[in-house]
Amino acid sequence: MIKINLIEYFENTVDLFPDKIAIVDSTSQITFDQLRQKAKLIATHITKETNAINKPVAIYLPKANETLASFIGTLYSGNCYTPLDTKNPLPRIEAILRALHPACIITNDKYITQLKELNLDFPIINLDELEKGEDVDEKFNYIKCIDTDPAYILHTSGSTGVPKGVVISHLSIIDYINWVVDTFDITENEKVGNQTPFIFDMSTLDIYLMIFKGATLYLIPEQKFIFPATLLDYINENKINFIFWVPSVYVNIANLKLFTSIKIPTVKKVLYGGEVMPPKHLNYWIRNLNKNVIYGNMYGPTEITGTCVYHIVSDTVDEDESLPIGKPCRNTDILVLNEKDELCQVGEKGELCVRGSSLALGYWNNLEKTNAVFVQNPLNNAVPERIYRTGDIVYLNEKGEYIYIGRKDFQIKLSGYRIDLGEIEHHILSVFDTINAGVFFDKAKNEIVLIYESEKEIPVKDFRLKLTKVLSKHMIPSKYIKMDILPKSTTGKIDRALLNKKINNT
Amino acid sequence: MKEKILEILSEIRPEFDFENSTDFIGEGMLDSFDIVSLVASLDEEFGISIDGTEILPENFSDVDSIYHLLIKNGVTK
After folding, report:
1. Which residues of A230-267 are buried (b: 16+ CB within 10 A; e: fewer)?
2. Would you call A229 and B14 a contact, using CB atoms and an 8 Å cutoff?
3. What is the dihedral of CA B37, B43, B44, B46, to 10 degrees?
4. What is the average pLDDT across A84-89?
């Protein structure tokens, strides 16, 4: 029978490889059978505590074995998980939780205190208080779910200051992971070295190769990425053979020319996504790794579940040209639409739109934002059919590959994080309520720039101290420019186009 | 030299007190972006080229360890 729920894939994998190591984190490792026991125990508690089905369960934990057990436990209970970043400032967590209204929140001894500070009314499950030998009720609610029910909700930066919760169904993940497994020939022999945080949709691939195929998932400690030489040592010690990281990590290793002293012969599959990979740095990897290694560019926003367009290379690439984002994945259709909502010709620029089972169900509790980007296919007048408008501007080349140009709005990508400059601006203007300011992105230096209007210079320290309390670290501007008077348009608004040109010297 | 190191550090993360910490990494004061900027600034300021294999936690735990790394790279003043 065709599988319709992620737990059916997990059960199948555990039955095949009960004693194989499923996950390795910085302090311990866990087998598939142990992971299933733990997940079932958590599921039992979720159902006992909430009796919820198809409701969000927030997971407030750092990256570790028990975090993934909580995700799987949530799925057993017939609910959908929402990872929260324990490093985010509490006001941001609070805003997400209030909009999400979760059935319960899962955390542990270490994080429960700060969670309780928020004084929210949602039930909390503390993993450190669950008794190990406790009975689990073997009747799990996931059997009541259908494949279009939600599996997870991931939050992305929103222009109004509150992050949007992208809701992804079981069907979309099944569609995506089966494509990855076929395309990259995935088996239980894969040793996946995870870099991306669980709040980030790239991690879906890493997690579900473990769940679908019995691959071992290595949660590489964050500190290894601060010191890339230790990262390469980690790969060798654990014989990692599959990696899917953001380009900035590959770029850093290339810039430091680390392969002169440390080789990583076990690595066979190198995937990247989340932002543009510079061809020069990709070539450094291609020249230094074994000849049979394959490299894959994986393009796709959270709203279409991982990847919708991909490009595989195995030989060095032309450094004067930008890499294509590639061709559509199986069971995904791409439409490039111009401003009249007509299909673009080869070479003509337009907005990349996606059609397929991969489409998110929408933004949680936000019909307005959902309807703005998940819209009727303008080329189909016969039946209702949704497409997702990505906001990315691309064109199709003669070879049938899509080439990325840029954004049609104020969204940027920094180290794979999707950031809406509007969200940063919203918080700056609310914290510093007396100043007028705009937030811009310096593309050449890859940094966020704040331009503010003031007679006196405001110390950078003042900005940063206050902003770390409301914004994630990667959202805090790294450059601060004071102007006596900001240029304004005739309507009195900040002249963004002019300032943007100034920042980017165009 | 230590004053210059502190000056560079406070330009990168002005919100932290680097002078009185002995565990920059453990206390989460520097992430991967910050280390990239820090190494670039040290290279430029002292006219050296710190090797990638020297970018290790023990060489960036406090001002003293950075100082010793610079000495090792031939910085004298």
Report:
1. bbbebbeeeebbbbbbbbbbbbbbbebebbeebebeeb
2. no
3. 130
4. 93
| Side chain identity at residue A449, one-letter code | V
Look up tokens 């089905």; give the residue.
A53
User: Which residues does chain B have within 8 Å of residue A447's beta carbon, measured at their own beta carbons?
Assistant: none
The continuous run of DSSP H or E covering A483 comes out as strand A479-483
Distance CA A268, CA A51 (A): 45
Task: For residue A363, give how far its alpha carbon lies from the nearest alpha carbon of chain B (Å).
Answer: 31
Q: Does the reported pTM lie above 0.90? A: yes
Q: Is the pLDDT of residue A102 over 70?
A: yes
**Cβ–Cβ < 8 Å for A121, A385:** no
3-state secondary structure of A159: coil
Distance CA A478, CA B12 (A): 8
- For strand A56-60 and strand A80-84, is the pairing parallel, antiparallel, or unpaired? parallel
Please give the Cα distance from A144 to A39 (Å, whole number): 18
Contact assessment for residue A452 and residue A437, using Cβ atoms and an 8 Å cutoff: yes
The complex's ipTM works out to 0.93
Dist. CA A243–CA A268, nearest whole Å? 9
CA distance A82 to A71: 8
- Chain B residue with the nearest C-alpha to that of A446: B33
Report residue A426 as tokens: 């919203």
At residue A501, the pLDDT reads 86
Residue A182 pLDDT exceeds 80: yes
Residue A87, token pair as written in the block: 């490093």
Averaged pLDDT, A437-465: 88
Residues of chain B positioned with their CB less than 8 A from the CB of A227:
35, 55-57, 60
Handedness of CA A354, A360, A361, A364 (dihedral sign): negative
User: Per-residue pLDDT for A490 more than 80?
Assistant: no
